[in-house]
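G., before I forget:
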Amino acid sequence: MMIPTSDQQLLWDYLDHQLKPETRLALEVRLAGEPLLAEELQRYRAVHDRLAFDSFAAPLPENFEAKVLAKIPQKLQKSRYAAISGRYLNVFMIVTGILTGIVYWLQLHNYTPLNTHFTAFPENQVILLSMLCLNGFILLILADRFLQYRRSTYAA
Amino acid sequence: MMNSQEEDSLLVARAQSGDRLAVERLVRKHQRLVFSLALKFIGHHHDAEEVAQDALVKAMRSIDRFQGESRFSTWLYRIVYNTAMSFQRKNRLPVFSIDEKEDYTFESDFKADSHVYQKERSNQLRDAIARLHPTDALLIELFYLGEQQLHEIEEITGISSNTIKVRLFRARQKLALIIDPSLALR
């Protein structure tokens, strides 16, 4: 006699440790009183244990490892940005680049509030020049990262 | 003692700093499952070898781009999946045919701890899994051999967690009928 599909799924979830504590407890109570359910669990457990503990991966072809290692360059490119999440660094650089670009553009086109402020202090031209340099630097880093991304084979 | 995931993290960090030995250890550790998965994806032994090699080389060359947002194994299996799909598209390959499985005969009096017994058990299990639908066989392999959670398998294959759960259920029900109980764990 077959047990219902819902119970079959419940048993697999039990073996996968996917049940909530109360559901698990309720099932264990049922298992104690329902021999058919307990028998089915034993059958599933045999399969589950074999899948979990027997190695069934296909055997490797001859010299597989040597062939792979021969294709990997001796010196891999070191990660220059490993310490910082690349995504956050990209966002930071794009935002900073846009802001410095806007400020420089406004100054270049004599936007009054900025112009008044900056023309009052001519030495602040140095700040503008620094902004321009920073912007250029950020664009260079972004271009470098973009080229790295293009070079990466993960795109496949 | 380090678990497998901690070991991977350590090896990946060393590989990212250019340590060749760490790269070799990562390849050694994951190569068998990578090949086995490639075989499930592709079906043909020779092509699977090419895909598996290609995937491992890609992964190691771009290891500096792994940022630890998922487990290393999940990231690696995703590369295997992408490489296999790309290979299939390029070569217009048919999906894995279950007719390629080999036949095995079993003796009932193997001792539980003997090498031959273990080998036969593995063969029998592989044979049983080969009778499943290729996608189900792949899910079984990722779930048990790859020790991937449902959401990680979803990340690798793009199949929704609910569908994976249903397919795993059906696959294991079928395996429960196929697997010879005389070779069960003792």
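Confidence is low (pLDDT under 50) at residues 95-112 of chain B. The first helix of chain B runs from residue 4 to 16.

More on Monday.
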